[in-house]
Design a protein that fits this description.
It is a single chain. This protein is an all-alpha fold and about 120 residues long. It folds into three domains: about 35 residues; about 25 residues; about 55 residues, no CATH class. Helix content is about 80%, strand content about 0%. The chain has four helices and no strands.
Length: about 120
């Protein structure tokens, strides 16, 4: 029996849930306390913003080229076309990230419905 299993047997799932909740809200509370002291124009904030966008871009790139689960069933050419359409939409109409994500989700849903109704 490893350490994780023994801690579950000794303390139970409620103690683990309590620990996870406390760990999550500790960092959120620390963020709220420090939010008033961080200038959005500072170099640190710009760096954090850049790193955040880089991580989102890397994860998106990974989802497009190396998907797992149901997305792996979608041909790569369709995933790339949907990505290009969304990028074009976001840059041409200055719509922002959320509208681009909604458009991508709708295009993927349309592809799934097309396959579903084509097979029936």
């Amino acid at each position: 029996m490893n350490a994780f299993e023994s801690s579950i047997a000794e303390f139970g799932w409620w103690a683990i849930l309590l620990f996870v909740v406390l760990a999550t809200y500790f960092w959120r509370g620390l963020g709220v306390l420090l939010a008033g002291h961080v200038s959005q124009d500072s170099e640190l904030f710009k760096w954090l913003s850049t790193v955040t966008y880089a991580l989102v871009g890397a994860l998106t790139f990974k989802l497009i080229l190396l998907p797992i689960g149901a997305l792996a069933q979608v041909p790569m050419i369709y995933r790339i076309i949907v990505c290009c359409v969304c990028l074009f939409y976001m840059t041409k109409f200055k719509s922002g990230l959320s509208r681009g994500l909604i458009l991508g989700s709708l295009l993927m849903t349309a592809y799934g419905l097309f396959l579903f109704y084509q097979s029936t």
